[in-house]
Amino acid sequence: MSELITYQCELKEGIHARPAGHIERLCNTFQSEVVWKNTRTGLQGNAKSALSIVATDTLFNDECQITISGDDEFDASLQFGELLGKLASFETTHNDEACAAPDGYLPRSLRELRADYVQGTRISGGVAIARPLLIQSLSLADLSVRNPGFIDTPAQEKARLLDGLESLKREKEASLANSSGVEHDIIQAHLSIITDIAFQGNIAQYLSENTNVWAAIVRAATDFCDILNQSSSKYIKERTLDVLDITVQLLGHIYGEDVLPRSSLELHEPVIILANNLTPGKFLGINKAYLAGMVLTATGKMSHTAILARSLGIPTLTDIDFSALDLPSREAIVIDGDLGMMIARPDENMLRYYRHEIVIRQTMQQEILADISTPAATSDGHEIAIAANIASLTEAEAAFSNGAEGVGLFRTEMSFMDRETPPTLEELTALYTRVVRLADGKPVIFRTFDIGGDKPVDYLSIVVEANPFLGYRAVRTYPRYLDLFKMQLRAILSASAAGDARIMIPMIASVDEVIWCREVLQTVQQEMSAARLPYRENIEMGVMLEVPSVMFAVPEIAEHADFFSVGSNDLTQYFFAADRGNTQVESVYDNYSPAFLRAMKFVADQMHRAGKWIGICGELAATNDFLPLFIGMGFDELSMSNAAVPVVKHALRDMDYEKCQALVTNVVAAKSTAQVKALLDHPDVKAKTSKPILGREFIIDNLDAANRNEVIKKLTDNLWLRHRTDNREKLCDDLWAREDTFPTAVGFGFAIPHTKSDHILHSTISVAKLISPVIWGEQQVDTVFMLTISKSAGNNEHMKYFSTLARKLMNEEFRNEIKNSVTSEALYNRIVRTLEV
């Protein structure tokens, strides 16, 4: 007899490495054999091998049959059934925006240079200029040819294999202990390949055919890669690079440097690496200080190398066959990760363009980071705390380095997951205390463990449910796992002796749950007092607002909770009864819905009437569209990813609180999502206070420009740095639209480019005296007055200034005064008198 389980795959990426790893680890605790069969493909594999499971090509909605045979088959089938109910939580999430293909838009200032470029696909954005470094990529076919040939006895070959596997395993385990984030996940996946029983079994099978271990390893890896390459899923195909990576590393451990030198790239100058592919192992060994960018012909956007490149912000492209290109060896090439293109032989104008682009981006980044320690506030002084969402000490360090004013959400359940037993009190206390000390007086909100639903933990016997998001999770599990809950509260209380630690309870749906949690907290406090253990007596306990029922129970809950924080993702999901991961209902999951936004304003108003502080955690708080709304609604704190913190703090300084409030009034009165989006397209939320049309910062008396295009771009970029435009590319396009109609040179060496645009926040006159004249249409120009007028200005404002300037330029005395002004201050004073601004 045997147990048969039927399963329909719910994972959009299919059964990939992470869920397959969980299946493998569970099945290896059984005595029974477990066979996974995909009924669509007819492929089956040993479920005790992650590679074998992935090789069945199980995709979204595929029906699978799992057969369990052996002495413990009944118990095994129960545990396996539970795991299948949790597999959706192992879905790998990707930053689609980070690797989105270009939409075909090319800025007019770049088109003007008539670039000879090769279009590729964006993996990671950014710009790089450096000489190319061509890296020869090893393939499994190459490895087969490089077999050293010598062979020992079967016993000696097997011993060599086992020693190599153990050596590589120890190396990976050591690396795993010192890694975090994306790098940690990838090393874990590689460790899974090393210990995979099917991979090891196939190698052993080939060894029995009187071959050496080199050939056995390469043949076993080739077999798995051939199967993976047959998948219709690009994501699964991209795992072949990981198999190749481990194969190369394993052969290196067994045969040593003499036969297969370990590939560490020694870089001593900035380079752009060009390779057919680059394994994650080789990438991790590169000195990133000199890695300017990468062009990888055959590396997919979801390969582990691509994920690493994005996590480190290294400009990277794929889908470019550089083998047919005439590439220089010592001269620089350019890659534009934002536009997904490579320029193999840039001319001097192109190099000037991108050198300037790099400088401008660095300047803006420096400005954003310069004031990270300044408290976040709008231009009119309305303060709002900008905090970070974290899950580890490493992320805490990054958050405070980026200017976070606290931790709005510490996802503590991460310490409970991916392990066989719960963490100890000592572990949690040490971690929480280090984070609180790192905060140096800033608040750290610890969300108590949110386990169940999409975050299963194997050592807790939480039964599989038809809809775990609406089931037994978070606070609902605490009475059953009371000792675990009390232990975590004790750890947070102990950490509170070192600073401002706070407690937040997830998935609260009623006042009774809050009262119960408060009573448990008081019990733990009494126990610690009796043991004379230090803690913060007035520690705050708040509620995470995810369940809509809380919105209508604020007065009674507020009697027992010190603060509230909206979990935007789950609240949206429960508000619309729409699974946020289900593409079939993604249009229902709508943050732009007027009903949802009215609910957000309602809850913020309710909290303040109750005298309570309210925050919001989630990336929704950091988006350009919703940031002014949450400010206008009166949220006291916005908590987001580390990277978003300095950008949002910087953006806040240009906003006007009263205008944000007015925007909220209009948005909640909207009758449709389309109306909301229209209102948020060009919202009037920027401060308009004392922004003169002319300022000394817009006078450049020695502009280095090689042509008209460069003049317009540099003046527009200066407007961006001075916060006069939030879309410099589109503003350039608007200026060029007039230039294309009729060049704006007016004679005597002067030009007056001008536009009335939606993309200028404050009408501005920019002035530049050029180091060397440029051709403007058919005239030589050495002095430029650029008029960028907001469409909100009067109908004739831009023509008023244009006409005044054109008339003055007919006066030789005025022209000479401008030409002879040797400083920007003198130039500024003369123009102010002339234009009366």
TrEMBL record:
Record domain PTS EIIA type-2: where: 692-834
Signal peptide interval: none
Main localization, broad class: cytoplasm
Location in the cell: Cytoplasm
Source species of the chain: Brenneria salicis ATCC 15712 = DSM 30166
Any Pfam family the entry gives: PTS-HPr
Keywords (A to Z) from UniProt: Cytoplasm, Kinase, Magnesium, Metal-binding, Phosphoprotein, Phosphotransferase system, Sugar transport, Transferase, Transport
Domain of life, per lineage: Bacteria
Protein's name according to its UniProt entry: Uncharacterized protein
Family matches, as InterPro entries: HPr-like (IPR000032), HPr-like_sf (IPR035895), PEP-util_enz_mobile_dom (IPR008279), PEP-utilizing_PTS_enzyme (IPR050499), PEP_util_C (IPR000121), Phosphohistidine_dom_sf (IPR036637), PTrfase/Anion_transptr (IPR016152), PTS_EI-like (IPR006318)
Residue span(s) of domain HPr: 1-98
